[in-house]
Automatic annotation (TrEMBL):
<dbReference type="GO" id="GO:0016835">
    <property type="term" value="F:carbon-oxygen lyase activity"/>
</dbReference>
<dbReference type="GO" id="GO:0016803">
    <property type="term" value="F:ether hydrolase activity"/>
</dbReference>
<protein>
    <recommendedName>
        <fullName>N-acetylmuramic acid 6-phosphate etherase</fullName>
        <ecNumber>4.2.1.126</ecNumber>
    </recommendedName>
</protein>
<comment type="similarity">
    <text>Belongs to the GCKR-like family. MurNAc-6-P etherase subfamily.</text>
</comment>
<feature type="active site">
    <location>
        <position position="112"/>
    </location>
</feature>
<feature type="active site" description="Proton donor">
    <location>
        <position position="81"/>
    </location>
</feature>
<dbReference type="InterPro" id="IPR040190">
    <property type="entry name" value="MURQ/GCKR"/>
</dbReference>
<comment type="subunit">
    <text>Homodimer.</text>
</comment>
<dbReference type="InterPro" id="IPR001347">
    <property type="entry name" value="SIS_dom"/>
</dbReference>
<dbReference type="InterPro" id="IPR005488">
    <property type="entry name" value="Etherase_MurQ"/>
</dbReference>
<dbReference type="GO" id="GO:0097367">
    <property type="term" value="F:carbohydrate derivative binding"/>
</dbReference>
<dbReference type="GO" id="GO:0009254">
    <property type="term" value="P:peptidoglycan turnover"/>
</dbReference>
<dbReference type="GO" id="GO:0046348">
    <property type="term" value="P:amino sugar catabolic process"/>
</dbReference>
<keyword id="KW-0456">Lyase</keyword>
<dbReference type="InterPro" id="IPR005486">
    <property type="entry name" value="Glucokinase_regulatory_CS"/>
</dbReference>
<dbReference type="Pfam" id="PF22645">
    <property type="entry name" value="GKRP_SIS_N"/>
</dbReference>
<dbReference type="InterPro" id="IPR046348">
    <property type="entry name" value="SIS_dom_sf"/>
</dbReference>
Length: 274
């Protein structure tokens, strides 16, 4: 099958500048409703990836996300949310973006066209065969991502890709290709829209399911979250109070003493069993 860039196909809508604000919003929403269904079709591949990541991470492996532009920013975003949400060190899920941190806010000219830089950055982090490298590119053609996946795979490292075009170059470099076919964007070629939304959903699914499998959630609660603001202290206090049947102030003292819901609950049970 010839490679076709659906992400560059003309929008299903035209004369956008002549539409009312309500029409624009409704049409964008109509397109957005297609995203979750496209992601649903990719669940078997996402499952295949997660079940291979978990045993690697139990042995000390890490997840690397690589992307350029929107794709890179979304990888960095998901990685940056793991420590506060699940209490994991920031060294376990790492987001790399073409052009470095400057590219989070500003475009860096030609950064995504460097076929070698992604692998060089992975080597700077000491990438090894317990790690997983996940390349993100709506087009599926970004050289920064393609080159990194190709080199990682050649070194026996588990690779995966997330793209919005079928049979793309990054899919050919991945052990586990994830293809989320959302169709043409509302604004032609603007893959920050449906493709970006779908990427965010898939990254959430990967990282959240991995963290649950690694024991970072109890019941349905973030028992390892970092207590970085009053909202989270309050949430944690209520978790401890509910779990142990303590009043609010008792629970808060216990939580702040031990630093996480899980440690507070474990310490309480230990003290009660002595």
């Amino acid at each position: 099958m010839a490679f076709v860039k659906i992400t560059e196909q003309p929008s299903l809508y035209d004369n956008l500048e002549e539409k009312s604000v309500r029409e624009i919003l409704q049409d964008i929403n109509t397109e957005d409703q297609k995203v979750a269904l496209a992601v649903q079709k990719a669940i078997p591949q996402i499952e295949k990836l997660v079940t291979q990541i978990v045993p690697r991470m139990k042995q000390g492996g890490r997840i690397f996300y690589l992307g350029a532009g929107t794709s890179g920013r979304l990888g960095v975003l998901d990685a940056s949310e793991i420590p506060p949400t699940f209490g994991m060190p920031p060294s376990l899920v790492i987001g790399l973006i073409a052009g470095g941190d400057t590219a989070l806010r500003n475009p860096v000219e030609n950064a995504e066209d460097d076929m070698n830089r992604g692998w060089e950055e992975l080597q700077e982090h000491g990438v090894n065969n317990l790690d997983t490298v996940i390349g993100i590119a709506a087009s599926g053609t970004t050289p920064y991502v393609v080159g990194a996946l190709r080199a990682a795979r050649a070194h026996g490292i588990l690779t995966a890709s997330i793209s919005s075009n079928p049979d793309s170059p990054i899919a050919h470099e991945a052990d586990v290709p994830i293809e989320m076919i959302v169709g043409p964007e509302f604004v032609t070629g603007s893959s920050r829209m449906k493709s970006g939304t779908g990427q965010k959903m898939i990254l959430n699914m990967i990282s959240t399911s991995v963290m649950i499998q690694l024991g970072r959630v109890k019941g349905n609660r973030m028992v390892n979250m970092q207590l970085t603001n009053q909202k989270l202290v309050d949430r944690g206090t209520r978790m401890v109070a509910d779990e142990l049947g303590l009043d609010y102030e008792q629970a808060k003292r216990l939580l702040l003493l031990h630093g996480s819901v899980k440690k507070a609950v474990d310490a309480w049970h230990t003290s009660q069993n002595k």
